[in-house]
Fold this protein.
Amino acid sequence: MKFNSIILLPNIVKVFSILFMASLLWMGWITGAPDVRAGVTSTGITLTPVTSQVLPDDPKTTLTTVVVNLAPEAKTGSHRHGGMVFVYVLEGTVRSQLNSNEIIEFHPGQSWSEPPGTVHSFMENPSRTVPARLLATLITPTGEQLTTYD
């Protein structure tokens, strides 16, 4: 038995190494996926990264998902994103304005999208007491900055 165990050890190490590298690739650590960090972006707005992964069929494209928490009365300044954005309201109420169009109020279960190049002129949580929470999914060129403030 000892002889068989010694022969199998290098194979186990190889398999472990392959699985470890695959997990790093999946997590986007060595593929150039955008670095999404948790933290406060504006007064009262925090980001919690969910995932950031280079698409296996298109390494030039990355899918990133972030939970956006807006404290009561939190607002963003004018900004744009590096690709296509889909936003889904999980909790609370959010008012949003794209490209200087009308301000629209969104409630839980509602969503909006922002095509590449869209100026997100305004977003706020209008409540004085209730926080809002969004799920934002971005499809961007790999390595592209996710958000640029005007």
